[in-house]
Amino acid sequence: MSTANRLVFAALVLALLVAPFVGYPIFLMKVLCFALFASAFNLLIGFTGLLSFGHAMFFGFAAYVSGHAAKVWGLTPELAILSGTASAAVIAVVTGWLAVRRQGIYFAMVTLALAQMIYFICVQAPFTYAEDGIQSIPRGALFGVIDLSSDTRMYYLVAAIFLIGFALIYRIIHSPFGQVLKSVRENEARALSLGYHVDRYKLMAFVLSGTIAGLAGATKSIAFGIATLTDVSWQMSGEVVLMTLLGGMGTILGPSVGAAIIVTMQNYLADLGSMVSIIMGATFVVCVLLFRRGIVGEIEYRLGKRSS
Amino acid sequence: MDQIFGVPVQAFMGQLMLGLVNGSFYAILSLGLAVIFGMLNIVNFAHGALYMVGAFFAWMLLNYAGLNYWFALLLAPLAVGLIGVIIEKTMLRWLHGLDHLYGLLLTFGLALLLEGLFREFYGSSGQPYELPEVFRGGFDLGFMFLPKYRAWVVFASIFLCLAVWYVIEKTKLGAYLRAGTENPNLVKAFGINVPLMVTLTYAFGVALAGLAGVMAAPIYQVSPLMGSNIIIIVFAVVVIGGMGSILGSIITGLALGLVEGLTKVFYAELSSTVVFIIMVIVLMVRPAGLFGREK
User: Fold this and answer.
1) How many domains, chain B?
2) SS3 of B65, please?
3) Contact between A105 and B101 using a beta-carbon 8 Å cutoff
4) Contacts B111 to A, Cβ<8 Å
5) Where are the domains of chain A?
6) Are A33 and A225 in contact (CB under 8 A)?
7) What's this model's pTM, rounded to 2 decimal places?
8) In angstroms, how far is the first alpha carbon of chain B from the final one?
9) B85 in any annotated domain
10) Does the pLDDT value for residue B294 go beyond 60?
11) Which of A11, A24, B48, B132 is surrounded by the most beta carbons within 10 Å?
């Protein structure tokens, strides 16, 4: 890790530690859950070049499973979150195995359709309570010892999970495995001709990305005590695409910045209903037409230009 | 014989007919997607939203201007086509040469925008569109009751699809179009205005969606959400059929509508997922799609 990156990491940890003294823990937890979700998504689009339009299936399904585990099975929060994450990993293995058979635009359509299938399963399955969702999921006590009913304590757990997920993604990107993923993104045919099993690498990236997205969803349902159909809908898949696009695809911090902006926006516009959808749509259009590097990408580009 | 596999013939044929109606819409929409994809290499996510806009135009023409179904059938697709021209000229054009994914993202944004706008003004609940006088009632075929309007939708869409297929595969205009798909630079060198052709192709593709919207208006409620409900299924249809062939997308659309109808008769719980299940099976045995040629 370079000195600059170490500094950024140290600043990030420090910011996460002081944040609850400045902002509302509830709001911060929401930002962190979506930041982790978007970072997981970015692992796929930004570093492997695969556009998944169905990432809500991991996020939402894991939210249901961890909610169910905490409420009905009475598991402690860390086990509930782990079981939610594991369920997302299983879905990711199956859907990824199917989806990597098609490329480019078809990949996006296949993932969208598979996610819609998971959505309909969630509508009909008895344990999701259809329109109501799983409500009043208990936060419980971490390891059965540390009571999480205080928002500040819950916040620190969420922050820790975010950091673990974030560090994991960073590690994956900077590993030899991550280098192969980038080569797949840049030139799939060449990576194949160099002897890499491209499909296996894609599947691996898909599973990792889906699992971490599941971790985000599972954490969210414990922190907020609710898991609903919204979390698993195609709109949610679109939202995470927008967060990543706005912050900067293929940058480390971009998705988190994008998530913070979108969550803030939704918080302020929540009363306006369909205005959220209009503004998100307009942001999409503007980003794609004028601002494809995203916020962090644009900053990095300008800094890079100055230094070279 | 008044039962088929333990289901009353009336109910069986009724569901089959309904499936065929749905299938007609899948066919027209996936046909439009295929035409646009061929020329622009863009998967038009806004297709469902423009289908919804077509239905709303029909509703507005009737309720604000007093113009009936037949006018809507002509005017709404023209208006949607005009929107298409604007979208292509002001936005999609600038994405030329970029990764195809940006086209998908842009049109997804447009879909959100359009859906949000109509929800803002008309709410999420549907508006009924009154069935034109001529189409009330139906024919009693002895073994089933065939509502006139549904029969019209099925015949009109099949005719429309075949007409589009004929124009693209058998006429000179279609030959230019196919040539433009294969090698736009060479076609340009022959003095054909390719950028204009691209704009018109997009406009035509979305006009088809608008037309489907008008035809759907009297059957379903005219609602801002009708577009996103159907577009994801149409995407699955496109994955199953592959976008390489016009005729393929027509057949796949109709067939999947029928399958959906049949599922409703025998195992209703599965009817919302059956298309996706078929998609999974097709991906396993024939990844390129039934009629597809993987590039």
Assistant:
1) 1
2) coil
3) yes
4) 281
5) 19-233
6) no
7) 0.90
8) 50
9) yes
10) no
11) B48
